Amino acid sequence: MKSAVILFPGINRENDAIAALEQATGTKPTVVWHGETELPNVDIIMVPGGFSYGDYLRCGAMAAKSPIMRAVADRAKAGVTILGVCNGFQILTEAGLLPGALMRNASLKFICKNTHLKIENTTSRFTNQYGKGDVVDYPVAHHDGNYFADEDTLNRLEGEGRVVLRYCDANGNVDPATNLNGSQRNIAGIINEQGNVLGMMPHPENAIDPLHGGIDGRGLFKSMVEAVS
Amino acid sequence: MKARVHVTLKNGVLDPQGKAVHHALQGLGFDGVNDVRQGKFIELEIDGTDAAKAKAEVTEMCEKLLANTVIEDYTIELA
What we know:
The complex is a heterodimer.
Chain A: E1 3-7, H1 14-25, E2 30-33, E3 44-47, H2 61-64, H3 67-78, E4 81-85, H4 87-94, E5 101-103, E6 111-119, E7 135-142, E8 146-148, H5 151-159, E9 163-168, E10 187-191, E11 197-200, H6 218-228
Parallel strand pairs in A: 1-2, 1-3, 3-4, 4-11
Antiparallel strand pairs in A: 5-8, 6-7, 6-9, 9-10, 10-11
Chain B: E1 2-9, H1 16-27, E2 39-45, H2 51-66, E3 72-78
Antiparallel strand pairs in B: 1-2, 1-3
């Protein structure tokens, strides 16, 4: 199974993405530089986290317009599995591959800690290894993770089962008190209409080794591998 | 020709930075401020003298990059 990690200037989580994909697929992913115009033939594409272009203008705005993103958009249309984490989520929304936008955290603070997440959809190609209502523990590290979309878009996302992850507490309670960053409806991760593109703020790639303090993130990578096998 | 672009959050989109600034202004004793919205100002130096053409081009720039129309509005001023 082949995978690729897209690398933009200012990205700093690519090695974590590479490690997680290698662990799950058994093969080291290809790293593709943002200035490239073509992608190798791969089953999984990951857009990692970091601070592409120094977060200038808006987080992910410049990266979304870089040459390689046209190829990523083509693959998205073709149904290839694409995971965007943190800055990767911001880039995918800015590129129009996912609806909504990520705004400054409501607290205005950079949030770096572990958080609980409720798996809301257990049939997606990113979460098929989890059970209904499972609560997982992933780290977050972001300043702009406050998910915003208009009411119609939010209702459509909910109606179509496209809200995949929500911020919650250890018992799975989703309410304003467990809303980490002010996201509408506690949304932490969504998929596109076709179901092949997931954007999420938390970092599953940083929860794949006991040394990370937990391995809850492995399920997400295993889900992708199962889905494309 | 100069184009001046203002990008602001849409009405109805919560602006936590504007709120923080508002709060700080109140702390300084400026009680007459009812609301603060924070935005961006972008100044472009562009070729040509055809205002209509420039406006169309800058509008396209706003739609494609300078603003995120999911959450932001923009206004363009030519000078």
